[in-house]
Automatic annotation (TrEMBL):
Bilayer-spanning residue ranges: 7-27, 39-57, 64-87
Highest taxon listed in the record's lineage: Bacteria
Name of this chain's protein: Uncharacterized protein
Key words of the record: Membrane, Transmembrane, Transmembrane helix
Keyword Membrane: yes
Source organism per UniProt: Sphingobacterium cellulitidis
Amino acid sequence: MKYIKKYFTIWWIPIVSYCLPILVYIIGTRLKSNDLIDVALILFYINILGNIISTIVQISNKKWFLIIPQFLITSFLIIYISVIFSFSPADYYGAKKVIPNNVEFEKLIEKELKETDLGLNDFKIVSVSQPGIYRFYTNYKTKEKGYFYIKAFEITSNDRLSEARILQRSKIIVDNLDSNFFTQEFTIYEGSWGDKYGARIELWFKTDSGNEFKVNQKNYIVEGWMR
């Protein structure tokens, strides 16, 4: 209790306490640990709250002049941390993933495809943009109107990748049954450039009548898009 009281009454202690979340953040980035980075952010926000309470205490003790360094340093750190996470958010999802040797992976194609590049009812993924941004091609012949879409899963944990975003972004509406060449782009957000991991990419089709089925699936080595 004595230490908690000192935290709020001695003006410089809440400021020095920012060293703890900064240290945890540095360790988290070194170890490529999303969990440690989350802990650092929690500690950072807790200390902001502590600074606010300490400010109120200083004012009540008629030491309002002591809130100036607290306000300036806290404001600077809030802006600094916001800029870091706005322009280069850390995501180490794929950093420690193991690519299994007993799984067969297709090679990502690095060019746009034409109809003649596909076999019968084929399905292929290409990477011709930034890492994490992919495009699929299919010439699967549907018997009903509906839409194609992609499901992606990390190969070892079966985690669903970017579920809502991929569902919306990869959707291709089929309203002409004579069409037989379809392509659309989708993005995997989990992970960062250079941190590659295995993924199972599934092509699904949902009919206008509500039936839903998997058309095809293939395994690829992917990486997340750094937004």
